[in-house]
Amino acid sequence: MVFSKSFGYALRGVLYVAVLNEEKKKIQLDEIAEALTVPRYFLGKVMRLMAKEGIVNSEKGHNGGFSINEATLQTSLLTIVSLTEGIKRSDSCVLRFRKCNTYNPCPLHNEIESLRKQWTNLLATTVLSDLMKKDAPDFIRSIATV
Questions:
Q1: 80, 60, 59, 56: which is closest to 69 by C-alpha?
Q2: Of 47, 124, 126, 115, which Cα lies nearest the Cα of 82?
Q3: Largest CB tally within 10 Å, which of 3, 43, 113, 125?
Q4: Are 132 and 73 in contact, with CB atoms under 8 Å apart?
Q5: Are the C-beta atoms of 53 and 47 separated by less than 8 Å?
Q6: Per residue in 61-99, pLDDT tens?
Q7: In degrees rounded to 5, what are phi and psi of residue 34?
Q8: C-alpha–C-alpha distance, residues 1 and 18, integer Å
Q9: Distance between terminal CA atoms of the chain?
């Protein structure tokens, strides 16, 4: 599965805010965009969505910015995927057979269905705190690279 840019920007933006939360209470959009080398406008759009959904807090104004809240680090990757991409169940056949489904399966159908379920479970059970590497000095650099 390949994630969209929206998902990547949202995830990296929220992780950046979470990592810097101990140093600063509010992180401005310009700082996040510059540190992560992502377009400010696009990042702003997904970060506003994250704030609207309660994943991060957002405060406008000169001293405003984004900050984490009690729910931030317990947010699952599946939640961010569903917000940024929607839950799109790919029913297309991996072998590109025209009529592949439960009733008319291709040779790989059952194995792929099993993998899809595992993938969804992984996203549902992995929360943002699982991705945090506070002891890794290059963590910010790892989420900043494109």
A1: 56
A2: 124
A3: 43
A4: yes
A5: no
A6: 888 999 999 999 999 999 999 999 876 656 678 898 888
A7: -70, -45
A8: 26
A9: 18
Contact between 55 and 72 (Cβ < 8 Å): yes
Residue 77: CB atoms within 10 A of its CB come to: 19
Report the 3 state secondary structure along the chain. CCCCHHHHHHHHHHHHHHHHCCCCCCECHHHHHHHHCCCHHHHHHHHHHHHHCCCEEEECCCCCEEEECCCHHHCEHHHHHHHHCCCCCCCCCCCCCCCCCCCCCCCCHHHHHHHHHHHHHHHHHCEHHHHCCCCCCCHHHHHHCC
* Contact indicator for 4, 85 with CB cutoff of 8 Å: yes
Entry pTM? 0.84
